[in-house]
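Consider the record:
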Amino acid sequence: MRESNIEKLASSRFDVLILGGGINGAVCASALTTMGARVALIDRGDFAGATSQESSNLVWGGIKYLEGVELGLVRELCVSRNKLIRTYPSTVKEVRFFTTLAAGFRWGRLGLYLGTLLYWLLGSFSTRGPRLLSRAQIRAEEPAIDLEGMVGGFEYSDAYLIDNDARFVFNFVRAAIDHGGIVANYVESTGATRSEDGLWRTRARNLETGREFEICSKVVLNACGPFVDAHNAITGQQRNHRHVFSKGVHLLVDRITPITRVLTFFADDGRLFFILPMGPKSCIGTTDTRVEELPAEVTAEDRRFILDNVNKRLALEVPLTEADIIAERCGVRPLVIDVHGRDRDEGDWTSLSRKHAIEVNREEGHISIFGGKLTDCLNVGEEVAELVSELGVALPYRGMRWYGEPPDEVRDEYFHQAILMGLDAMTAPESSELLSTRLWRRYGASALRLLEDIRVEPAMAEVLIKGTEYIRAEIHHAARREMIVKLEDFLRRRSKIALIERTEMIRNAPGLIEACRILFGSAAEDRIQEYFERR
């Protein structure tokens, strides 16, 4: 599919070329293709391969922005969160945040509790209500928390992704493909010029072969995430916004608490600090470090900060050390600066919110998306569709719904078939959830195709890479439909194997060779060697 799409990129004319396959580019591709636009999307890496794969997996309304009295932003994010919970019920789930406060914190326990009530109000009371917690309640409900120096806490609700963030992003890319979008990963733009015929001509390079070609489009949409500024520079776009970067690091360790809730503290630097559930593991962080160069990297100081903070706040029999780290996540938050506004001198950059800004050069047909976060993604898609329409691109199916899980009748038919064939009885003993539930959440309507594969060949329901939950049918599905070029694309982004299993376990896992032969054919051994050499 990728090779075929690259040929189409070079030979076709598009309404919109989207640069970047992170969450911003993915939702725009899904929205525009569904509405009837002829869309191309390229990414110089894999889809969701930068900031969009390094999040906290949270879908939250931005409670911390209440401190800056950004009530409008919090309300907008809460509405977006609620919409995601409602339209992705299998993927985006409400989760409780269990927060503990130290004596002498800058805000009192009662004041912060009142803040959670305001947050609940701004979220239209759509989640469970907040609770004020005493020390005794915390001790009874979460004995892992060290209460020395603590005055109590509070509990409130937000939401999180059950699966990994990159998988959520890819499903928007897949929806764009299903609606006629021509997408390709590992294709970079080396610049674009506006020709006299009113078309953008974007110079592109296939990074797997080195082949160079040109992509013609009416509109160019720069959704390159942290690299938006760099691409605007090479296309001569003068913008009113730019980015500063804050590095966020998370560490993955074995599950700390059996209860599926987010343990929340205020770290030594005063910022929120989380212990998040991620399947059988816990994800701990995050840091907040200003960086200038990309990509950002995990440092020894980052690890010490996270481990020191978690060990101070938990009553563990044995403190966590670097030996307990299974995997690491490291990305940058692209924070938006208005170069003409009050934040042009950056001031206290740690107070900058994750708002997005969209700029349009109407004369040239160029759009740039700055900042943003996963919670706000549907708003970005809608706003860009409106702008593209204003630039003269026809959207004949503007009213079509472009996001959300399949209709209830499709879901009901899937689970009906799954029950009739006894799918859940095939769930591997080590799995964290029933097979029918997981396949529906990950693949939606395409899960019906996986049922057919299993019905024809029951061995398709067997876990292929031992120690993980991924069955043989999923590997075949990924090879057909998920444009996997490198082993990391599957292990880190289409699945979360690389986030919850140690590198050595993956290297020695029975079934890895077979899985790679399904994904890469005769290139399997080369892809395996390439992946582990980079570890």
